[in-house]
Amino acid sequence: MSTVALYNDQGGAEAAVEGLETSSSTSGAAFGLFSADFKKNEDLKEMLESNKDSLKLEAMKRVVGLIAKGKNASELFPAVVKNVASKNIELKKLVYVYLVRYAEEQQDLALLSISTFQRALKEPNQFIRASALRVLSSIRVSIIVPIMMLAIKEAAADLSPYVRKTSAHAIQKLYSLDPNQKEQLIEVIEKLLKDKSTLVAGSVVVAFEEVCPDRIDLIHKNYRKLCNLLVDVEEWGQVVIISMLTRYARTQFTSPWTEGAMFDENSEKAFYENTKSLLQSRNTAVVMSVAQLYWHLAPQHEVNIVTKSLVRLLRSHREVQYIVLQNIATMSIQRKGMFEPHMKSFYVRSTDATHIKTLKLEILTNLANEANISTILREFQTYVKSQDKAFAAATIQAIGRCATNISEVTDTCLNGLVLLLSNRDETVVAESVVVIKKLLQTQPTQHSEIIKHMAKLFDNITVSMARASILWLMGEYCDRVPKIAPDVLRKMAKTFTAEEDIVKLQTVNLAAKLYLTNSKQTKLLTQYILNLGKYDQSYDIRDRTRFIRQLIVPNEKNGALNKYARRILLAPKPAPVLESAFKDRDRFQLGTLSHSINSKAAGYQELSDWPAVAPDQSVRNVEVIEPVQEWAPLVGKTKKPKSTEKFYSDNEEEKEEEGSESSEGSSSSSSEESDSESEEQSSEESDKTSSDSGKSSSGSEKSSSESESEQKKKKKTKKAPKKNGKTAAAFSDSDENGNGPAARDGSTSADSSSGSETDSEDEDSDSDAPPTQQQKKSDVKSKPKVKGKSEKEVSLLDLDDFSPAPTNAPKSSVVSSSLLSDLEGLSLSNTSSTMQVTTPSFGPVKTYELLHHMTGKGLSAKYHFPRQPCLYQPSMVAVQVTLTNSSDHSLEEIHIGDRSPASLNIHCFNTIERLEPEASVTVSMGIDFSDSTQAANFQLCTKEDQFSVSIQPAVGELLMPSTLTEQDFSTEQGKLLGMNETSATVTMATASASSQAVTTQVLSVANVGVVSSGQSSLHRFAGRTVSSGALVLVSLEPKESSAALLTINTDKSVMASMLLRDLKQALALA
Amino acid sequence: MIHSLFLINHSGDIFLEKHWKSVISRSVCDYFFEAKEKAVDPEDVAPVLQTPHHYLITIYRGKLFFLSVVQTEVPPLFVIEFLHRVADTFQDYFGECSESVIKDNVVTVYELLEEMLDNGVPLATESNVLKEMIRPPTILRSVVNTLTGGSNVGNTLPTGQLSNVPWRRAGVKYANNEAYFDVIEEIDAIVDKSGTTVFAEIQGVIEACVWLTGMPDLTLSFMNPRLLDDVSFHPCVRFQRWESERALSFIPPDGNFTLMNYHVSSQNLVAIPVYVKQSISFFESGPCGRLDITIGPKQTMGKMVEALMVKIHMPKAVLSVNLTATQGSHTYDLPTKVLVWDIGRLNPQKLPNLKGSLSLQAGAPKPEDSPSLNIDLKMQQVAISGLKVNRLDMFGEKYKMFKGVKYVTKAGKFQVRT
């Protein structure tokens, strides 16, 4: 080994590797040349081989010192590697440092240490395992790739999240060592992506980005989990995850920027909410990554929230400023409004670095508009006087840009620039000339004065670019300064030989142009100049001269071209466009290295354009963790008016919201309606969650598991009302069963079979069928399935849901999510035939006042009936209450107090801890009106006050739409005759009211379903009372002129008369 | 991500290198040296440089360049932020971040760098976590270590990395439990020639020094949180509590840390503590000029203005100054052309004045530009925005703690144009 010593410090890597071959064979006595370095290292070697730890440590410290200085210490490898198993932790760590640094050069010797690490990988202490893996994977020796692979796989399944994190890091190392392992590594990444520890999330996404950034499909199932974990991930991981998710979102969602765009509330809203708080991070990289996320993904009106945070970053270090300013420069081109209020933050200080100054100038120029231009120009005046001449020149260009962009100030700018022509500083003058030239080109008509002025200054200007610009101006507008131009040419003829190339070229140009316009005066001068040019040293000038001569001086050979000389030389030229250097920077994702250097960096992943049609959203559905509600309870969330197309997603969103709102509460509400099955499940779930995550605090864990179980229950109960419709639909599909609908109703309202049906649906969704298919499927087979599955053990079915999941990840959430999606499928399939007509009932939502803000001391409340099956109990009517705080202080503990009549069954919303001023929150509650229009009275309480309020339902709101075929409708109607029939003649506003208008009016009054009818004139509607499920049938038969016969068949005669009255009023408007 | 790190001193010597992946030759730094050559000031070197095979991302801190080499796309701020965190850590460990101190502690530095990055990905950057693994050197410990051969590497394992509060080490014990908070506000302002304020804003920071036993859960509330317009927090602060109650609720790291940074809403008028009457002029005839500066108190909220200092970057043509100050001392540094007038405490009865002549390089044209004045000052016991801490409560621990809040106002980037 000591042969290595032959090579001294400067030897470098190759020498060391060469040395290695001999070193492994020869060991023992040293020989060779004794250089000073060699002696020193010899001394180190002795120390390393001594028995004392302190000596070894001292030696290692010196060795590390050598490494740090970049000196070669590779010949000590054998001596060092012996200490790899040392008991002294610091010594061991230093040996690791050495090993990682030189292993690549000393591969054979490095192998000696491997067994130590392999042993350490089995240690009970997680930190020892992790550090062993860290070092092992850092040893860049390709022979141990299989060992590494094995170690990584094992570590990825380790119980300790810290070790799993280390394995994620090791993946990248192995990949860079041997890219052939990609496939196997992707498998490990896939596994680690499922990990729920916040420790792992960041690291595995880094590995994902490095190894397989194009495998977007791996993210689907983890998307929501990553969104939810994001806040708790360490800051460096946050940056990587956000950046990856931005890319992901651009491939998976449709653009929120187009008119009437649909917002996938589930996926995106929560994501934005989660990321918003990260704008307050102390880590500038995190703030920037959130900013770029909003820039690239958020709807236009939301982007502005990042402004303040970005401006805040300008207080940070110079380098941070540089990057942030670059990004702001790009943003401010497209959206001035974002940064205009903060314009003054971009004012330049004389102490700023030049590149910071230039960027600020760029931004100020971008922000300039008619309103602020005078302020900006005043500011620019200060900058022009700056000591930093490069900056002063940049300011002049900026003034030029302002002048072209804002026509109001063009003249002012031009005059200002002309004044600068008499500045003492050459660069300032030169820059002014160049900018004036560009400006004059845009509107040359009125400015012969300026051209004359410049001609006067010409003698004093020495900067060649400026001289050339003036000459060009003279030539271009020689007709406007007919007397001066030839004179300038005369002067140039005198100094021609002493000028710079660029000036000479322009002189030739000027001569040519003058020759064409004013050949009388300038013919001789031109010839003189062309002769000078002919013998110039520069071939460019000789070339140009020859060309010009041929062009303008007629002779027999070039007659054809000569005719066009005037047109060629004096063609009107388009004005140059003065635009920002950041104009097209936004082709790069903001915040990236590529954006910063304005060219594609290695490994840059393009942001794709938004897809025209959103890819299947259900791919993300599998794993939903109910977001741990860490932020304020849904402040300011208001419902958007629903449009018909949005039926599906909005519906889903609403339920999700309701679910999450109520899940914030205690478990008490759930216990009252809990059945044994769900209890069993919830305990199972919470067990799993708590055993798994060592990270999330126990409090939040509990609440999340509670919410999961609770939500689940809600789904179960929600099933029931849905089932009403469902069975009806099933019945109509398969008529041969012949069962009376009444009997069916009885069986569905009992809860017994509903659970099993839900479960059967679960399985459906687990198979990856897209929702549309699924709907059809369930439509077709729902009936037999109910029967078949109902015999099965319910809990067993639930376990089926757990089984495909890996054991280390609790899958509790899976059930709830798939349940959810199932319910969607279900509800859609019921209504699919009538969907077209029933949907308008979701359109006009009447809002009623519950509490005026005057009486409520600032608290105002409004309510409306969302006309959806109530989540809490099937017999309840869902009511959504929007609470708004219009006082100037925040209100606390908003909840429902005493109610009357006392028997009134209300499902209250959970106490709202705090409502900020101007904020509003929408909560849902359920009220069992027992099919009467008696008002529900209760008290709305805040911490200090109590307000008595009442909700009086319109009779139409006590119904649920029911789907019947025309035939069934007639059958049912036949059973409800006599006492059960109420009818009246109504007069409609217009004789020929369209059926659409009639439908709309009826649906606005009553929550009933349209029965498709063969006769276009006859309108039929069917519904059931919410509480008792009694059928309510409405039919409208037009009579002569504008009259029509309105008939209501139901056994609830009181309701019938009230409904009749309401409908009569409404139809009078149709 | 981060491939290698080179530390380069002011004169361009690489005195430390560390590689997290395969070794990159230090010749890569030549591109940087080229750019540094071109720049007038070291601050003018662009933080991001592109070379044929690598990208160089550099920060300049304490006269040192931290040059990192990256090979693939990575957010530049990610690297910049990390490098600053490295510099902060050095500062935290060794009291300063300078070449000599890094050279003296090269082993600790190397150990730190090893823990902070794994394969170029940040691993442990929390000061509390690092200190558990690598103890900061103290004089006593280094003496003991040399005698006994002990080490700086902690024997405990970095359990902090696993806890839900990774920023706090476990098992902290103090005989005296103390928590101090410094509310430091800086006024950034640009005042124009005529004395009108072109731009002014207040940036604040709350620096904390907490020595408390166990796992205290602190809540700090303000009298007037509405003043705060934009904030950023140490990760320990519970954002949701801030959103709902405008109070800072947190389990503090042990020792010194920055609790929050804030920006005072621009609606509030910023009190400018001093006014400056100045005239700097250069004569058309003859190579000389005149300077006359007087500073007086403006809106000082009844507090004393201390540590008053004026810095002027003179035009290049100014060769020497001949000035007399009624208070304090002044120096003119010829190579950098910076005139510094250190006034000290501002006496409202007798306003400090600096007056005299400037001599210019013979033959040089009269400078076009007039230099701007950078003002530095300090006011104790007042936060200029009026922000006040209301109370500090502790939960989770039983003992009594000693608490203190201190307010300081300083001039940030306070510039008077002439």
Give average pLDDT of chain A, whole number. Answer: 73
Spans of at least 5 consecutive residues with low confidence of chain B: none
Number of helices of chain A: 46
Largest interface here, residues on each chain?
A-B, 110 and 99 residues
So what's the overall shape of chain A?
flat
Please give the number of β-strands of chain B: 23
Structural class of the helices, strands and pairings of chain B?
Answer: alpha+beta
Taking all Cα atoms into account, the compactness measure Rg of chain B is 25 Å
Overall pLDDT level of chain B: 86
Query: What best-fitting shape of chain B do the alpha-carbon axes yield?
Result: globular
Estimated helix fraction of chain B: 10-25%
Cα(first) to Cα(last) distance of chain A is 102 Å
Output the strand order for the largest sheet of chain B.
11-13-9-8-23-21-16-19-18
Describe the structure.
The complex is a heterodimer of chains A (1070) and B (418). Chain A contains 46 helices and 15 strands. The longest helix of chain A is centred in the last third of the chain and has 36 residues, at 698-733. By secondary structure, chain A is an alpha+beta fold. In chain A, helix 18 runs parallel beside helix 20 (354-367). Chain B is 17% helix and 41% strand. Chain B is globular. In chain B, the strands form 5 sheets. A 9-stranded mixed sheet of chain B has the order 11-13-9-8-23-21-16-19-18, with no helix packed on it. Chain B is α+β, with helices and mostly antiparallel strands and 418 residues long. Chains A and B meet through helix 3, helix 5, helix 7, helix 9 and helix 11 of A and strand 2, strand 4, helix 2, helix 4 and strand 7 of B.
